[in-house]
Design brief:
Helix content: over 70%
Shape: globular
Structural class: mainly alpha
Number of helices: 9
Number of strands: 0
Oligomer: single chain
């Protein structure tokens, strides 16, 4: 977990600065630093599909694959927060260092708080459900969408970071809330969605690179 947080937090910020600097100094488009760092933040959200498949073929340890996959999920939330910051700068809003720190803290901690709140409420709700896999899966899916909408549209914090926090809460402390075969079915359901999400990211990257 510590390795994932370091790679998805400071790692993404360092990557954003390095990519933004390379874009600013290399391409002859006369971009401002704000625009260059905006694109650098977008490009810092990596996708592990090809890497994880290669690691499996090479027989690498499961721990390494888990770290790479987990970091990929977490860095999406970080990259979106960075994108929101530089997008507002590009649109003309001015930030000093204190305002930047305040913005990142509010968006990040607000998203984490909302994710934890929805996680606790949904786990308490699951306590009234006994061995009904369909309802358990439907509940987790509905709570994820509601949490995202509440954070992104209602409170104006990172919806992606909110859902990521919700998922980490489920994985860390809510395993016993899913009874019987529900836990295994839930794992298969969300793993299938994760694979679909990764393939869609790869498709979007491929389409954007050919335009």
């Amino acid at each position: 977990m510590v390795q994932m947080i370091l790679l998805a937090g400071p790692g993404v910020l360092i990557s954003t600065f390095c990519l933004g600097s390379a874009l600013k100094l290399t391409f002859p488009y006369n971009w401002s630093w704000k625009t260059s760092l905006l694109l650098g933040g977008l490009l810092s959200a990596t996708d592990p599909v090809a890497v994880v498949a290669l690691l499996k073929d090479l027989g690498a340890s499961k721990k390494l694959s888990t770290i790479i996959e987990g970091e990929s999920l977490m860095n999406d939330g970080t990259a979106i927060v960075v994108y929101q910051l530089f997008y507002q700068m590009v649109m003309g809003k001015s930030f000093n260092w204190a305002a930047i720190i305040k913005f990142l803290t509010q968006v990040s901690l607000g998203a984490v708080g909302i994710g934890l709140a929805f996680g606790i409420i949904s786990v308490l709700w699951l306590g009234f459900i006994f061995n009904d896999t369909v309802i358990e899966i439907t509940l987790t899916l509905a709570v994820s969408y509601i949490a995202y909408f509440t954070a992104q549209e209602g409170v104006d914090v990172s919806g992606v970071l909110t859902v990521m926090t919700l998922g980490m809460f489920y994985a860390a402390v809510a395993r016993t809330a899913f009874k019987g075969d529900g836990q295994q079915s839930l794992h298969h359901f969300w793993y299938a969605l994760l694979r679909l999400y990764a393939l869609l990211k790869l498709l979007v990257w491929f389409m954007s690179s050919t335009v």
